[in-house]
Structure formats: structure tokens, C-alpha cells
Design brief:
71 residues, little secondary structure, two-stranded parallel sheet
Length: 71
Amino acid sequence: MNRPVSRNRATTTLEADGSFRMVVAHADPGIPNWIDTEGRASGTLFFRFFLAEGDIDPLGTEVVPFAEIGI
């Protein structure tokens, strides 16, 4: 109830170029767009592009150590 477990257009912070970075982690790394795992070791991410205007660029993912998230 008190953890950020989803994001949408209103709650996502965009970069200057309009892109965004989501961070899925067990603790708050202190940067925008954090999604809390609630301590779970696995889960499912679902991205929905509703009424997109044009092509959607492929999404990229990367696993990094927690200490390197803000770098």
C-alpha cells in the first residue's frame, strides 16, 4: 500500500529527450522511477503502450548491482 509497485504516464519522470529509465529494486535507490520488488525474488514486468502515436522503440533491460544503480 505504501510502496511504489507500478508507474504510469503521470508518475514516470522523463529524461530531457523524452526517454525514461525504470529501476526495479528491493530498496529505494534515491532516483526517479523506482519500482519496489516488495522483497520478492522474481516477478513479471508488463509494459502497455495504449494509443501509441507511431512506432515503439524496443525496450532494453540490464541487471546491475544495487550500489551501481545511480551511476
